[in-house]
Amino acid sequence: MNKLNQSITLNNGAVIPNRIVMAPMTSKGSLWDGTVGKEDMEFFSRRSETAGLLITGATAVSKLGENFSYQMSIYEDRFIPGLAKLAEQMKRHGNKALVQIYHSGANSKVAYEKHGMVVAPSAVDFPHLPYEVTELTNEGIWEIIKDFGRATKRVIDAGFDGVEIHGAYKHIIQQFFSTYSNKRNDYWGGTLEKRMNFALEVINEVKETVKKHAKKDFIIGYRLTEDEMHKDSVGYDIHDTLQLIDKISDTKIDYIHVTSNRFGKQIKEVINNRTAFIFVPQDVTPYAAEEGLQYGDMVSLARAALIEPDFAKKIKEGKEAEVATKITSTEMARSLHWPIKMAEWLLDPNGRNAVPEGIEYFKNLD
Q1: Judging by beta carbons within 10 Å of its beta carbon (0-12, 13-18, 19+), is residue 275 exposed, middle or buried?
Q2: pLDDT (average), residues 64-83
Q3: Is the predicted pLDDT of residue 318 greater than 60, yes or no?
Q4: Structure pTM?
Q5: Closest CA to 43 of 56, 58, 61, 59
Q6: Which of 168, 164, 274, 259 is nearest to 221 (CA)?
Q7: Residue 96 pLDDT more than 60?
């Protein structure tokens, strides 16, 4: 496992102590108002030795941008104290900790519950949504871009090491990039190049905020979903994405992070060492993680981080054979510190995010 243990220096000079990344996951352990909760604090603290780079779940930059219930938010200064305590816990073993910043646009279901309004690039009739969306004005678009900058300043003030811009999983940045959700014919849409503009302007806003307020080694990353397919249409394909990746690589941010392992070779070739590439390995084992380094400069763990909070620690100690790959007892389930609502979500056998192994061990937990 020597490759996984190697440090890596990013474009800005930040040094990550190993090649393992804890992927951002919605943990549902915070308060309804977006304040960091006790369960989230315990969940992330328990994973302070999972990886050299830890990333929080999606954290809303605008009050109209919340998709998930009991998620963290960062659209006002009142969220900073809780996030500062979280940063201390996540960084306590010498690793780097980032906040994933996002706005869910049309999919901001919780924002609709709270405020009765949802905004999006275009007023599309989304069949999966039980409400109408409001098309953003040009001024409204720029205000959301500024929200990403303001959120970045709060991340800096809270003591985190960086931000990951969430351009994946059909949130607002992806909605601007997709022809399915973006029907505009202005600066923000109408051609592939214009559909890239929102993502690139967000990156620029974040970079300018970091330049003014943070140390040189403050990390900026970007996460994306490689393609978007619908039953009767294509929002964008990998060829579109490779052009976006080329543009993002030119901005010299610190990494690009993908959500699957389908196009590793093509993405690596397009990036061409201009920034670090975070790749998703095939499964939860240390051997699969090391194999993923043939494409990525780092590898991203989600399910593995849920099951084995000491992933990086065990590899560093030469105990890769002891890395857990499934849940095997009630005692182990209790030690994982999954927030209750997260456990209900992940262990739903009918859910998209099901983790079926070990369901029985969670049934009697408080």
Answers
A1: buried
A2: 97
A3: yes
A4: 0.96
A5: 56
A6: 164
A7: yes
User: Per-residue pLDDT for 184 more than 80?
Assistant: yes
Q: How far is CA 177 from CA 87, 102, 139, 159, 233, in A?
A: 31, 15, 19, 31, 14
For residue 139, pLDDT beyond 70: yes
- What is the pLDDT at residue 206? 98
Q: Quick one: DSSP state of residue 73?
A: B
pLDDT exceeds 90 at position 324: yes
Q: Is the separation of the CB atoms in 18 and 6 below 8 Å?
A: yes
Q: Which CATH class is domain 2-325?
A: alpha beta
Q: What whole-number distance in Å separates Cα of residue 247 and Cα of residue 200?
A: 8
Tell me which residue of 253, 333, 267, 264 sits closest to 292, measured CA to CA: 264
Q: For the chain, how long is the longest CA-to-CA vector?
A: 57
In degrees, to the nearest 5, what angle opens at C-alpha 230 toward C-alphas 228 and 232? 140
pLDDT attached to residue 348:
74
Give CA separation, 61 vs 116, 180, 349, in Å.
Answer: 18, 24, 32
Distance of alpha carbon 168 from alpha carbon 187, whole angstroms: 21
Rounded Cα distance between 325 and 283, Å, is 9
* Per-domain residue ranges of the chain: 2-325, 327-366
Dihedral angle of Cα 59, 62, 65, 66, to the nearest 10 degrees: 50
pLDDT range class, residue 16, cuts 50, 70, 90: very high
Average pLDDT, the chain: 95
